Amino acid sequence: MTIRPVLDLTEERTSNGYTPGPRLREQVILRDRTCVFPHCHRPARAADLDHIDRWRPPDPGGQDPDPHDMPQTCTDNLAALCRFHHRLKTHSGWTYRRTGPPTSATYEWRSPTGHTYRRGPDGDIDDLGPPAPPI
Fold this sequence. Notes:
Blueprint: E1 14-15, H1 22-32, E2 48-51, E3 73-74, E4 78-81, H2 83-92, E5 95-99, E6 106-110, E7 116-119, E8 125-129
Antiparallel strand pairs: 1-3, 2-4, 5-6, 6-7, 7-8
């Protein structure tokens, strides 16, 4: 039998470096449950954790970071992506953001062609269609 402490999914967890710590990783896995890319159901436990907004290393010659700024590696800026979709997002122009309350695994994706998809916490997909034509 393994005893593990309870994780509060509403608590904002952070890490000062690029790699999330074990409790932050577990929190994201429990929240997302699967890869958050539209139509993918690979388990989050086997996925990479992706920085939704690209992680930027500290500038060694720059200013010290503002202590009030949220670290980049945090609950709100991480999502589970299987390796295939992590690479697709990183290298092919897909973008996404997490929407809804902190415990929600709802994501809005935009394809390189401008189509928008909303993926809910249960994996349901809403195709929000192409961008509106210019006026």
